[in-house]
Specification:
The complex is a heterodimer of chains A (169) and B (352). Chain A is mainly beta. Chain A has a domain of 88 residues: OB fold (Dihydrolipoamide Acetyltransferase, E2P) (Beta Barrel). Chain A contains three helices and eight strands. Chain A is globular and about 45 Å long. Classes of the chains: A mainly beta (169), B alpha/beta (352). The complex binds zinc ion (ZN).
Chain lengths: 169, 352
Amino acid sequence: MSVPRFWREIPQRYNLQAAKCGACEGVYFPPREVCPACRRASIGKMAPMRLSGVGTIVEWTRVHKPAPGYEMQVPYTVALIQAPEGPLLTGQVVDSASEAIHVGAHVRSVFRRVGQDGEAGVIHYGTKWVVEARGAEARSDAVPTGKATDGKRRKGRNKALFQPPVRSP
Amino acid sequence: MPVGITSYGAYVPRYRIKSEEIARVWGDDANVGKGLNVHEKSVPGLDEDVATISVEAARQAMRRAKTTPNDLGAIYVGSESHPYAVKPTGTIVQAALDATPFMTMADYEFACKAGTAAVQTGMGLVKSGMCKTVLAIGADTSQGAPRNALEYSASAGGAAILIGAEKKHILAEIQHTVSFTTDTPDFWRREGQKYPSHGERFTGEPAYFRHVREASERLFADTRTTAKDYTHAVFHQPNGKFPATIAEKLGFTKEQYATGLLAPRIGNTYSGAVLLGLAAILDIAEPDDSIFMCGYGSGAGSDAFQLEVTRNIEDYDRSPREQLATQLASTTMLDYATYAKHRGKIILGGSE
Ligand SMILES: [Zn+2]
């Protein structure tokens, strides 16, 4: 990733900065300049908004064939996370026991290294997710149950999933 | 005008390795950890470094603070393992807090006492009226060379201390500070070297003990106090043995230093160590408790502090989910092979 592009994306990568449409109240992550639903009616009405940093896992997969730069982290977990504000986010789930990772699990955001441009290049920081320990629900009060489905792991989505961040529906 | 701690945050990565496991791999005496009083140490996650640890600690401090990131006049991050040789860790913390860009900043380095040096700078800036609040952070992800004695203790963690002068926000007033600094080559790392070197037995008496003793005794003299006047005491903890030895020499009892002594469970978090111990004390402290704190950094120097807890601590969020003890209770134990992977001691080769 180019240094200017990474730099421009710092607010969304570090602080989950999204955009809210003033016309339809739709929330978009990554932030958009025009609401895809309201189009011209949204111009000048897209306001920055920070997601709360909590969510619920709606789908997840364990990656054994790593994306470049993630070789040392194999196997690692990537999940689709439903934010209470609306957007679906893609992110890596870290520091969580494999039995704690399931559809419906509550997660919260943490600040981590997400990559680097080689040993001499700039370090990319951003948001990853950890499963909330039982007894620590206080921080995830705001999270709705989400779209918990059958709890089965789905296959064949590794590539599509591993392109953070993903667009909101 | 009083100056003091108006909020704080602490972060220790969840991974641990036991001293016995390190001893097993190198054929050392299984009791080596017992001798150092370090039974296990913290290990950073594969994606954790001083910037991420600083951000986690800083976010907790700001979440519990009565002031906002836009009230910050400075951020100082003290560490000997900054992720960049040139580019301040503080800039990453500032962005992650979404704090005002109108602030001054520099990274600090003084072996294990860069964090307390940051606290002293913050005190000066706040007391002089130059800044409303200052965030002082001490954090490290230090490494010991494999099979080196340091490997048993060098660990990861950090704490963030918010300094302010508004009486209604001060949780613990910092009443006095004294430093003692000399040119003592007990431990060093040259530019470009991956692992530090140390002066073997030279690290004890002329380095750690002398500097901590000099700063502590001067602070006692300046404040006309003795060890008996304090509720809690916390010292820099390169292992679990040194701080207990110096504490007792200075007249403190085990009851006074037990709460802040984390090295037996997390090892030496370097710049984070004494501030994490302070965070553990503040988590349980009561109004009017007095706290003695003395940091130490190789090279060498010591910073001693006298603090007094105020009634504001009663309204501060110290619920279990915010307490360091809760974090430390949730761990993942690693074997040496996984630990080596975490610490970049495994080199990947070949193609996928
Ligand atoms: Zn819209």
